Protein 1
Amino acid sequence: MENLTMEKVVNYAKNYGFIFQGSEIYGGLSNSWDYGPLGTMLKENIRNFWKQKFITENKLNYGLDAAIIMNPNVWIASGHVASFADPLIDCKKCKARHRADHLISEFTKGKETADGWSNEKIEKYITDNKVVCPTCKKSDFTPVRKFNLLFETKIGVVDESKSTVYLRGETAQGIFVNFKNVERAMRAKIPFGICQTGKAFRNEVTPGNFIFRTREFEQMELEFFCKPGTDLEWFKYWKDYCINFLYLIGLDKEKLRFRDHTKEELSFYSKATTDIEYLYPMGWGELWGIADRTDYDLTVHEKHSRKDLHYLDPETHEKYLPYVVEPSIGLDRLFLAVICNAYNEETLDNGDTRELLKINYNLAPYKINVLPLIKKLHNEKAEELFNMLSKKFPISYDESGSIGKRYRRADAIGTPFCITVDDETLNNNTVTIRNRDTTKQDIVNIDDIISYIEEQICV
Ligand code: ATP
């Protein structure tokens, strides 16, 4: 929808049970959100869509579900303890706190990204270009400080420094430490990938924009292990795979773009990195990071764990550390993109307006809404139908209010089909099936409902 605002999205998500403010009855906790009944269904459908495309339908990849709390040496080896930090800057005038790199990219409207710049370079840029605080419009800042994003906690009953552990800052490290296990157990041959979805935690300096940037979020990551020298081909393969996934899930092509990282922005170990950005109501934002990470991760884990993580090619007998291509997407950011992309307000032929979540059928929380036309007369048959269809599809049942109101409610949450039970059902064993997008209605025999629906919702 044109001119969709984030405020509208937040209200919509709350009203229909997609997302509530976290700990709301206690006044909330800033930037924490709870997924409601429909939100959990939609989120799981998005996750399953990703798993289907990246694991089930791609024979190169395997799944994994590693622990959130890992041996702290993992995070020392990966470099997170020493340098997983964002540049923080405070406005001396109004005390607003900013991420210094974001300050520059906002000020230059995205022309400069400042990703990977040193503190000194950021400070010089801010002074030379008189970058102002977005809150008070003054240009008077503290020096830039680095702020580590890892959440610390303690394990066990004794409160001493040895018991410090971290909530994982990304799901990727659980994959790297299991590289050899998966290779061995699955008799996997390079190239192959390991996929994982789950929670990650970052003590973000400036969380915000609803679920776009939170301190607790979910990632869906693939670490793809390949022979050195083939990595750039695989980088291209996964770039194409990821963008096609986003088209398939239903995001508009014109709201997606690649942003290749410049040499200056690239991490020292990366040969190539690109972000897929989506045009959210607040502007373009990173949705998916895709990086050629060379053999950096396996090298550091080999060094710190003192375990051999090399791969022995069974055919050529070459021994090498595989290179890694990593496509990493935030599940919550994809959820937000899916909702923003699908939300619409439409005027119907009869002049009525309706809210419509024009979502991919596979993602819809409920596939079908069963409606008895007149509660007293058609309830029994409708319940029979509900019992039959609910074994096959996630479906809802709505018997209150006028039929028009019930259609509106189903449209607003993206239910593709409304099935109305009326006198014809009792007399002729047929129902009326209304399509969410076209509002067209078909008369279908009860025995044919399942195949009618299945034909239309398969990917
Ligand atoms: P950003 O530059 O926006 O902070 P990043 O480059 O640090 O993101 P990555 O470390 O590449 O992000 O993480 C991979 C993906 O995880 C991102 O593309 C994004 O979709 C998601 N993600 C990262 N941080 C957050 C967060 N705080 N809240 C929600 N999703 C996040």
Note: The two ends are 24 Å apart (CA to CA).
Protein 2
Amino acid sequence: MTAVPQPTAALLDGTALARELTARTAESAAELRRRTGTAPCLATVLVGADPASVTYVRMKQNSCAKAGIESRHVALPAEISTAGLVDAVTALSEDPAVHGILLQHPVGAHIDERAAFEAIAPGKDVDGVTTASFAAMSFGLPGFVSCTPGGIMRLLDAYDVELSGRHAVVVGRSPILGKPAGMLLLARDATVTYCHSRTADLRAHLREADLVVAAVGRPRFIRGEDLKPGVVVVDAGYNEGNVGDVDFDSAAARASLITPVPGGVGPMTIAVLLEQTVEAAWRQLVS
Ligand code: NAP
């Protein structure tokens, strides 16, 4: 008879931590409103009507409303040009009533996404997507972090995961997720290996990892047999059918700590977005 692997890992509970963080953010938003008479405002920009993007934006707006953050939605046609999108984002950057800007990604293959992101004023870049924000984060200077990697770090810290001297393997190197996640781990003295689609013998790297961050976009790409016993597993992947980039059952049988999907990294991403929006509003309205 084949033995069925039993889960041994404890959960890194992003839902519970995000709730705590958002409760503090809501208090801060209410205090700002008392002091200035103005509520923080997040502008969301959506190009086209991709159903997943529409859902993500709606989730973020609903979360804003619960935290006392106003949102202003800018819906643009799928066929808008790069110049048109840059103009729309620039207008929000210059509007004093808007404190944070979220440009929902992806924006369509015909658009220069980087140019559109760079139109976000760094002080309003609460999603942490501009080169200015990436540079500040990499140099350890004040600024807004990319929300998903920022949420991952908050989760690891809440569970006292030791990072200094540990080997972190980040699978994925996108500018909004894998790359900044590795930079934040490096800043905390982890030894970081980035893996990507051209990595030779990726599974050998995984077997050496004390911490794995999965940011691949491929369902159940990482399995328990790829992992060292006791590893900490953070699954940032979110694929159709609520499936992560990690095969949860087999990985949980090897790991000491693991994020569920859903309920791990996703809620933390939104919680960090809200926190940074309120922080941006404080800086613009009070200091
Ligand atoms: P992305 O831009 O498509 O990047 C995927 C990365 O994975 C790339 O660096 C790619 O390598 C690498 N990759 C793809 N196939 C691979 C393979 N077979 N072997 C090794 N590496 C491979 O995706 P993303 O925007 O970073 O998102 C990644 C995942 O996170 C998706 O599931 C997405 O839905 C999820 N996500 C979740 C949140 C959240 O809030 N929870 C936020 C953002 C994204 P190359 O660079 O070589 O192409």
Note: The first helix runs from residue 14 to 36.
